[in-house]
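ARCHIVE ENTRY
Sequence with per-residue tokens
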Amino acid sequence: MIKLRLKRLGKKREVSYRIIAINDLSRRDGRPLEELGFYNPRTDEVRLDVPGIVKRLQQGAQPTDTVRRLLVKANVFEQVSANAASS
């Protein structure tokens, strides 16, 4: 199964994350299938590749709890349901 999860980057106490699509059996910082965004918790900066995320969600990818919260804040799930309704 494909998961949308966070990949940790940065130094100690200066962490940032990339939002990636990865096989759920791979390790946290393993090679991703696709990089779909960036999250910096220190500044609350979020950059998302919304079309790529919508495509992965429609293919059945499951976001982790933290990624799900970030996507809800960015209203990505509304676009997924809108695209599903128009198809």
